[in-house]
């Protein structure tokens, strides 16, 4: 987005900031991840509004990108089922593209199999109108597209090694409790997987921005 000189309107609804009422003043929407699940309306009452806003952007043929929790909210907005509390998928792991990904504007930017960062427990069923684009060893629905440019991406392709290193510090105790071996071998993991994941993530990001 910086390369494209985009103007970014960043909202933090979990901190009480308001969401846009509609899509009129924006060309696209990105919905990022978070600790909450996509059905936690009681604690995060903005979630139904956000799911509906996602669909408003999509219905207007504007580019939509949901990452991790964001992908789960894209699925919710388009009538799919959110599935909570599955086994965790964490760290740099392979994603495998489907045959449909070869002709997809975004997923065709990477190889049929690529390394990328993951951090999630929840997932979703595919919306009825979705094109299935990618899966991983334990998560069948890693990526899908609806229409021209509505994407739900479960994996964290935005998390380059700089951001993962930041997460390692910010969420150190949480990672230590759940993934101590990964943390102990962090330097080796970065050396082995970081550069390839960074390249794949940047290619995907550029491909999506080109759809705005």
Topology readout:
Layout (H helix, E strand, L loop, with lengths): L27 E4 L15 H13 L3 E5 L1 H9 L4 E2 L5 E9 L15 E8 L2 E2 L6 E5 L7 E4 L3 E4 L7 H10 L1 H7 L1 H5 L1 H24 L3
Parallel strand pairs: 1-2, 2-9
Antiparallel strand pairs: 3-6, 4-5, 4-7, 7-8, 8-9
Helix pairs in contact: 1-2
Give a brief rundown of this model.
The chain has 6 helices and 9 strands.
Description:
By secondary structure, the chain is an alpha+beta fold. The chain has one domain (13-209): 3-Layer(aba) Sandwich (Rossmann fold). The chain has six helices and nine strands, in the order E-H-E-H-E-E-E-E-E-E-E-H-H-H-H. The protein is globular and about 45 Å long. The protein starts with 27 loop residues before the first strand and ends with a helix.
Structural domain count: 1
Strand tally: 9
Tally of individual helices:
6
Percent of residues in helices comes to 25-40%
Q: What integer value in Å does the Rg equal? A: 16 Å
CATH superfamily: Class I glutamine amidotransferase (GATase) domain
State the major sheet: 7 strands, mixed
The neighbouring-strand order within the major sheet is 1-2-9-8-7-4-5
Mean pLDDT rating: 97
Q: Which spans of ≥5 residues are poorly predicted at pLDDT below 50?
A: none
The CATH class name reads Alpha Beta
At the fold tier of CATH, the topology name is Rossmann fold
Which architecture per CATH? 3-Layer(aba) Sandwich
Which term fits the overall shape? globular
What is the structural class? alpha+beta
